[in-house]
Write a structure and sequence with these properties.
This protein is α+β, with helices and mostly antiparallel strands and 493 residues long. It has helices at residues 4-15, 45-52, 56-68, 70-92, 148-214, 221-255, 259-267, 291-312, 357-423, 429-463, and strands spanning 23-24, 38-39, 96-107, 129-142, 279-280, 317-329, 340-349, 490-491. The chain has one domain (20-106, 129-486): Outer membrane efflux proteins (OEP) (Up-down Bundle), CATH 1.20.1600.10.
Length: 493
């Protein structure tokens, strides 16, 4: 028997070379999406964030948001859950040692019940009542011939990678939302400042017009028109102040800071944020920086590992078990005889008739793999779509910003000339009135265009994965495709 045990172990180890292996290839990137036409980054988007969004007020708000966000706390809790699961799976691959202690009593009805009936031989008696106490140590070790434990451990590690990437995605969304609301608040603040300047200019124009009316130089209708211009300018101010307050309230929710702490940073901010125009020639591999794509890749690999583990459960498992301890009869002489007990040997177990449970588990695991692949395709296509969208939008809004800046400068010159001519009696009041209105509209539109350009750049910043380095969210077990044209492959038993 002792010679047969090593032979049995060798035979089972040979079977382990046919352990189930599952590897689902990710779908290739469509050829039409293998390269972007333009983008803002080279190889280091973090440098873009640090240099171009290095506004001190924004940095303070971002730091507060990262510190106080409940969404990040929930993401961190999910990471801890993944780490706990990974530790549990790693522990299953180590020897399991446990201690035992038990007390059990028994009582036989009659002595004739032993040995199939009849009287016992003379001089032989059996204790009808016993109280046995057992104590000792049990140990077992699963040899994991077919890789079930290894597959479970790999799946847990990949799910931890996915949770880490999800947390990075939450962080990226939080940073982008703070920056967008910060830019919008700064734009509303600047627009309100322009509106106040317009109110002051309209009030000054009304004063000049009234003086000219009293002097009989112009008709009284010019005074009414000047009053209308002042009322129009004053009517825009409450809406802009309300927009600024709404954006500050949104920042309060995101950062946990009070409006009184946020308002000074917004007042000192610029809606432009010095982002600059995007550069050309960014490769399609930039989507690998996106945490949601990294998470989708990790979940496909985790689903493959779950399928391999489900397949391995259909094969026998071999364990080495042993126990050592003491057994005492508490009703007799406790230390009589030899209380020492020892047991050791291999244990082979496997399913025979399970009613199709293992087959159903494998089918479910493969279905989850198919779902993970579909989710990966959706993440990749969505990433390419977002990047293309924000590249075009950023370029268009940057051109609009430049044009509106020029228009505002031209209108400012027109107002200056019209005012001088009006004071000298060389132009009528309608020319001044129209020039003043056009200047306010152009300045307001220029500020909005600058904020819209910054918002598009921030959307592009998020679309390409923000300031995360390539592969930072994964452990390297799953690699994103490089946009090749290879066909999907699947190796599943």
């Amino acid at each position: 028997m002792r010679r047969a045990l090593p032979l049995l172990a060798v035979l089972l180890a040979g079977c382990a070379t046919r352990a189930p292996r599952v590897e689902t290839a990710l779908p290739p990137t469509p050829a039409s999406l293998q390269r972007f036409t333009a983008g803002p980054f080279g190889a280091a988007p973090g440098a873009w964030w640090q240099t171009r969004l290095g506004d001190p007020g924004l940095r303070r708000l971002v730091d507060a948001a990262l510190l106080n966000s409940p969404d990040l706390e929930a993401a961190a809790a999910r990471i801890e859950q993944g780490r706990a699961e990974l530790r549990a799976r790693e522990a299953e691959r180590r020897p399991n040692i446990g201690a035992l202690a038990s007390v059990a009593g028994s009582r036989a009805a009659t002595a004739e019940g032993f040995g199939g009936g009849g009287d016992l031989p003379p001089g032989i008696s059996i204790d009808r009542e016993r109280v046995l106490a057992r104590t000792g140590v049990d140990a077992s070790y699963d040899l994991d011939l077919f890789g079930r434990l290894r597959a479970d451990r790999r799946a847990a590690a990949l799910r931890l990678d996915a949770a880490t990437a999800d947390a990075a995605d939450v962080r990226l969304a939080l940073v982008t939302d703070v920056a967008r609301n910060y830019v919008s608040a700064a734009a509303a603040d600047d627009r309100a400042a322009v509106a106040r300047e317009n109110v002051a200019a309209a009030r000054d124009l009304l004063s000049v017009t009234r003086a000219r009316v009293r002097a009989g130089l112009v008709a009284g209708i010019d005074e009414a028109r000047a009053e209308g211009l002042l009322a129009e300018a004053a009517a825009n101010l409450p809406l802009l102040e309300g927009e600024r307050a709404a954006r500050i309230a949104a920042l309060t929710t995101l950062t946990g800071l009070s409006p009184a702490e946020i308002a000074p940073a917004v007042a000192a901010a610029s809606p432009r944020l010095n982002l600059g125009p995007p550069a050309a020639g960014v490769p399609s591999e930039v989507v690998a920086r996106r945490p949601d794509v990294a998470a989708a890749i990790a979940r496909v690999a985790a689903a493959d590992a779950d399928t391999a583990a489900a397949l391995a459960r259909r094969y026998p498992s071999l364990s080495i078990t042993g126990s050592i301890g003491l057994v005492f009869n508490l009703l007799g002489s406790v230390f009589a005889g030899d209380p020492f007990s020892l047991a050791a040997g291999p244990s082979l177990a496997g399913p025979l008739l399970d009613g199709g449970r293992n087959r159903a588990a494998v089918a479910g695991a493969r279905a989850r793999t198919a779902e993970a692949v579909a989710n990966y395709r959706r993440a990749v296509l969505g990433a390419f779509g977002e990047v293309e969208q924000f590249v075009a939008l950023a370029q268009a809004r940057d051109r609009q910003r430049i044009a509106l800046d020029r228009l505002a400068a031209a209108n400012a010159d027109t107002v200056s000339i019209a005012r001088v001519q009006y004071r000298r009696g060389l132009a009528d009041f309608l020319g001044v009135l129209d020039a003043q209105r056009e200047l306010f509209r152009a300045r307001d539109a220029a500020i909005q265009a600058a904020a819209a350009a910054a918002d598009a750049e921030l959307g592009l910043f998020r679309a390409v994965g923000g300031d995360l380095p390539v592969g930072a969210a994964t452990s390297g077990a799953a690699r994103p495709p490089a946009g090749t044209s290879r066909a999907p492959r699947s190796r599943q038993p």
